[in-house]
Specification:
Four copies of one chain form a homotetramer.
Chain A: E1 7-12, H1 17-27, E2 32-38, E3 62-63, E4 73-76, H2 82-94, E5 99-102, H3 115-119, E6 133-134, H4 137-146, E7 149-151, H5 155-164, E8 172-182, H6 197-200, E9 205-206, H7 215-226, E10 233-239, E11 246-254, H8 260-270, E12 277-279, E13 295-302, E14 305-312, H9 316-331
Parallel strand pairs in A: 1-2, 1-4, 2-3, 4-5, 5-7, 6-7, 8-10, 12-13
Antiparallel strand pairs in A: 8-11, 9-10, 11-14, 13-14
Helix pairs in contact in A: 1-9, 4-9, 5-7
């Protein structure tokens, strides 16, 4: 704790979009003090060099490296593969008391054997995997409460899991087909051909059809919720011509006797105490959730076909907002501390 | 025929986006003369009042009404429900020799009993339905060749049918799940809440989930191709934050023994003589087809899951370009007359 | 005051975009209670019917009419011409103690003779004009502090006035040329041809060249600041293909001896105590200010040419945020109460 | 000439956006055969690897290098600084008979002393500068007709010069203030921070204020047209959130006696035989010119202030279309050969 009684947090790899949103949220959190933030690209420079929205709102500068031992909680917002390598030495320096929230995919899959297939590398610290709780509070709150280490879900994974969690047990026949569209901010702050404005603008393009790495973490969660076998997921991700948001459309076959009303009731029960889940009567809009930690969900059925649609901000509920929510749950604080706001509209 | 040996065509309801694209294409067609174009909104005004891209490219003005008897072919580009009411009197005036291409949904479904459910009205001229051929040349060319009257397919329908046509016979288990995204130009030239820029921009929103009216025309075509039962289609349309294009993602269960290579070969065979279908090895991009009459299609399978993706310009291959292609097929001209160009990129 | 010691405020005409942002901001204001909000379009419906971002964040519903006598402060967010007609009867009912912040253009020009030319109508309440202070705190704070009635500036006017205020006195030769781009949300929530997505998307279009109605309110302010003659403004507004923001580029001739450094120093002095003005060393970006009450300003000179660029969110600093800021100044509260946040980036 | 009587042309550096548009236009040109196209990035690959719109429309592949001696005309579409270095050796191989159209900025300024300031390098072939004609046909047609070598204007330069050319002689007092917005395709096909979609989307940002390198080529042309001193240009370029187009707003002081009608008449006279210039009665829209070689211009005056607005497609009239137009003028062909089409709308 800092002298003012606030939790001292640090952000590793803070110059990316996720790091910027995390910093924005944590600067407004009533129980937290951002002690330091690191970046290898902007060492020594004010944070507004990377995050121009934060100009005039903080005097923080990027550090080349963090003093882990001075922190109560560390958010890992670096690139894929970094956290799995660095966490052992971080813990060696700071001790097991240090709380960790990893926003990469490095600790999401409990089975270390899955990493080569989905992430293209052997896991560097397989012994640590089971010390992390999967950080989707609405569907895994008890485990998060008990844990000091959180694997924050992927953005697509959050959208899919929230849409499918209530259906994990025996409602669906066959596979669930998911088509989900992401904004370009999901590809991060480093320019590349897939985020080149002239060709991303006004365009739609699928990628990794049937083989996106966020599917196995949802599989794992659904099986846990089902207590065994859960519906298989077939997913096609699309790159959309907007900056923020995930819009996921899930379809499946269900019993013809299952009504739209019954589907809705199931979701109302599942999410009745969930501050950030808003069940909507018409298909949701991205611009109603962007900028906030809300996920809007629509669920219906018609003549044996099920349709569930979820919409969220990929950088907030799909990343940094959820990381703060996980911190709140871990600490036993109000779940919406620092997250109690709506986004702008339109 | 006009004095210069060109086919004399007219456009009814020519002030909309479809009418504008049709006019642009027909002005460049080597065998056609646009005799007249009507609009109730812009009577007497130059066509560039509605279509500013055509300023300086034609001296045509909108007529309040067309002289059908002076035409060889009439394109009907008016609103829903207009053509089904007006065609009988048009034919009475112009005679059965007049060729018709209807770009509305008024003559697509052969079963008149389906109109109340899908279009919210009884069909006004059910006796004429069977005189129209469904105008998707790649899958229904012989019928178009024999016909003088064409029901031009819907934009979503074209994208779905081209993706699913080769699969109509016995390849797919269960339903096909389609999620398809449309640009805002598909909603036409009259402003409304669903095309209000502040809320459409950067947004994604589904509508008519599981109940879009383009599904039954694809059902009808697939059953014809299958010679009986065909896979059921479950479709969720999305409004995307761009002006042009349809991007359709189709997923289904198939035999686990069916390989990506075999899927691709099936499509190559099905479309081997189709000038406007381009089979691509990676998921297609809208910006590669927009502005042209091409439809790019990607088809693959992985571990029992099939994915077919089609991309086209909703106003060209999904409407006006296809109407010109249908004219070409009806007349026995080169199928790409007036359509032999690429769109701009990017 | 309400029972909890908060100021009781109402919003008239609250279903538009400005009303929605005002409600969002006031719901988070520590010293305010939103007592009621009216709408003629959505009477009796929850506010999320118009503002879907606010679903789950308030139980407020739109009233058909407000009880002015129960309010401490009224925000007028209705259409042009409404406030000038209704204010006399509102004051008759509620008494002169009621604080007013008018977000329309109805009370911005002190000279009633200007309304026919710029707003197309005679002023309905000319006797009230001088009771309103022009609500641009950075340039008119003392008058706002003394007033109970505020004429909130226009969005373009705010951008121009903040860029030109420090130059009002004798720095500029000849006219100032302003070209300023606005997002589509500035045209409000009612669809029209100028905000039709298919034609607004990817487009640029000027309108009212040299004759926008926000110019005379800036003229009036600059003359007040200059204590006499101020530079004339020549302005061309552009409609841009984005939803939020004003980006104003101002150019003028100045003495060749005036350096970039001296220009910057002038602005630093002028805005040294202004929390929401951020002077930037490179031309600003809209996405650094959108969603916040900041205005980023860049000012430079080169070889006798001056360039000042300002960027702000048209709905926040250009409307609702500034209205809250004006409330804070009137009440003697911290100027950033309820406004102490950054926008999202990117 | 090729065996079929067509002019044999080559494109150097053909994998960029300008190269792609040039190829698209030349493939449709009735008097030209594209003999070869080079790219260092895609050697040996089909042109659709870089230009996916051209899939199925040509069998051309990128060559690592061109055989200049087999060409009648060479289009240079490489990066800045390449042409000034390579032209001497190209001419040595191919002979002075080879026609050249350079689309870079390497041969636009006749005064070699200007290159260090505006392009950051000494000119590598100053002796060749005067052999190039400045390729803006509407304002420099006679020189282009007489030349075998063309310096194709910049995109901003084309927009500014067409807006200001008729005003070169003595109409304007003081400087002309230009604010001009460009689409992202103007930055080319290689990703960079200024074209990163998440931050370019929905954004506006000025760059190089008062110091863009396209200004001196317009200065040079205006002085030539004026036969001496011409108005100085002060320009601020903006990056807009769209892919295609230049929208230039020019303002200046003029005599108060000069009417809007007189301004319009001046432009009508100046451009009366110019196929691609369309004078419009309301401010133009980018989406009316994009995809075509048209430039729409609006000119007016009010109470001593002049406003001229020009809109064009940066890749067509601002680059590749103009290059084809220059070829047509050089060859004595119809000026619109291969360019006789409208763009899509919307």
């Amino acid at each position: 704790m800092s002298g003012n009684g606030r939790l001292r947090v640090g952000i590793e790899g803070g110059a990316g979009f996720i790091g910027g949103e995390l910093l924005r949220l944590l600067l407004g959190h009533p129980k937290v003090e951002v002690a330091s933030i690191s970046s290898g690209t902007y060492p020594g420079r004010p944070v507004f060099a990377a995050h121009p929205n934060l100009r005039g709102r903080t005097d923080l500068r990027f550090s080349p490296a963090l003093r882990y031992e001075a922190l109560d909680c560390l958010f890992l917002a670096g690139g894929p593969g970094e956290a799995m390598s660095s966490v052992p030495s971080i813990l060696a320096r700071a001790g097991a008391r240090l709380r960790l929230v990893d926003l990469s995919g490095d600790f999401r899959l409990m089975d270390s054997g899955l990493y080569p297939k989905w992430y293209g590398r052997e896991h560097a610290s397989p012994g640590l995997l089971h010390s992390f709780a999967y950080g989707l509070p609405e569907l895994n709150r008890p485990a998060i409460r008990r844990s000091r280490r959180i694997a924050n879900p992927g953005c697509f994974a959050t959208a899919m899991a929230l849409a499918l969690g209530p259906l994990a047990k025996g409602r669906v026949s066959g596979s669930v087909s998911v088509t989900a569209v992401t904004g370009s901010s999901g590809s991060g702050a480093v320019p590349s051909s897939v985020t080149h404005h002239p060709t991303r603008h006004s365009n739609m393009r699928a990628y990794k059809p049937l083989s996106h790495q966020h599917v196995p973490e949802v599989d794992q969660l659904l099986r846990k919720l089902a207590g065994g076998k859960a519906p298989a997921i077939s997913m096609v991700p699309l790159s959309g011509p907007f900056s923020r948001g995930i819009y996921a459309v899930c379809q499946a076959e269900v019993s013809k006797t299952w009504t739209a009303k019954a589907v809705k009731a199931l979701f109302q029960t599942a999410y009745k105490d969930c501050r950030f889940i808003r069940l909507v009567d018409e298909p949701p809009s991205l611009n109603a959730v962007n900028g906030s930690n809300h996920c809007d969900i629509y669920a219906t059925a018609l003549e044996g076909r099920l349709c569930v649609i979820s919409a969220l901000d990929n950088l907030v509920k799909g990343a940094s907002g959820q990381a703060v929510q996980n911190l709140n749950v871990m600490m036993g604080w109000r779940e919406d501390a620092g997250l109690d706001f709506a986004g702008c509209f339109p």
